Amino acid sequence: MTEEEFFAVLYSAMPGRVFTPIAPAGAVEPYLIYQDITSMPQNSMCGYAGLDEVHWQVDSYARTRREAKANMQSVKRALRSIDPQPTIENEQSLYETETRLNRRMAQVITWDDSTGETA
C-alpha cells in the first residue's frame, strides 16, 4: 500500500480531517495525523524481494477520549474494508496537556510492493 493509498483509506474514515506530519495551525478537532515511522525492505536469497514492510503511526485527536477512540474505530473499519485482518498494534490512549486534547494512537503495518521507479 503506497502512501497515497493509505491516505485514501484514512480520508474515507474522516474526510477533510487527515494531515501529515502535523495538523496545520488552527485545525479544528477532531482530526487524524499519520506518518510513516519505519520502512523495512524484504529480502530473499536473491536480494530485494520488491516488497517493503511499512509501519505507520496514526493519531486520532479529539476533545474527549470517547471521540478519539470512536474516530480510531472508524479508521479500523476503513482498513478492514480493504484488508479483513489489518495489522494494528500498540493502541493506546493519551492526554496531551499542552493542547488539552485526547489522543488515541495506533501503529498500522502495511506492505508496499511499488518500486518507486518511474517509466
TrEMBL record:
It holds the Pfam family Tail_completion_gp17. It comes from Caballeronia calidae. This is Uncharacterized protein. InterPro entries: Gp17-like (IPR021508), Viral_Tail_Comp_sf (IPR053745).
